[in-house]
Design brief:
By secondary structure, the chain is of the alpha/beta class. The protein contains 6 helices and 5 strands, in the order αααββαββαβα. The strands form 2 sheets. The protein has a 3-stranded parallel sheet. Helix 1 crosses helix 2.
Length: 152
Amino acid sequence: MPVPDFQTIMLPLLRFAADAIEHSMTDTREALAKEFPLTPEERAELLPSGRVRRIGLDNIYIQAKRWDGSVGRPELQKFFGALHGKRARKGVFITTGTFTSDARDYVSQIDPRIVLIDGRQVAAYMVEYGLGVTTRAAYELKRIDSDYFIEE
């Protein structure tokens, strides 16, 4: 089986994560493996293992939360601590809310790097990749074809 594209893998992942419960990487990997008919060899090759990949890329840890209001620096400091506990060098913090300016300032000064994705960006990605959205209308734009009016 070829590596699934972003949209193919993200919709089952979002459905799995929709229960708002924190899931381990093992549980997530198993849920995705059930969604796609994968052999054990394909699982090892195509799904994250929790270890540094054979080609030398680091793992990226993700925390996604449904959040009303703004996420502040204290939440990001907790995530930062969790990243250090895993010796991770990269993290992504996704929220349906927003981030305070203090939180944004904090992540701009730390290592490991934490990428922040707020509710507006989540919505933009959903539209861009067609996840959880339906096209209601499509518009056709016309332009005048000047070649049509040229006399021979």
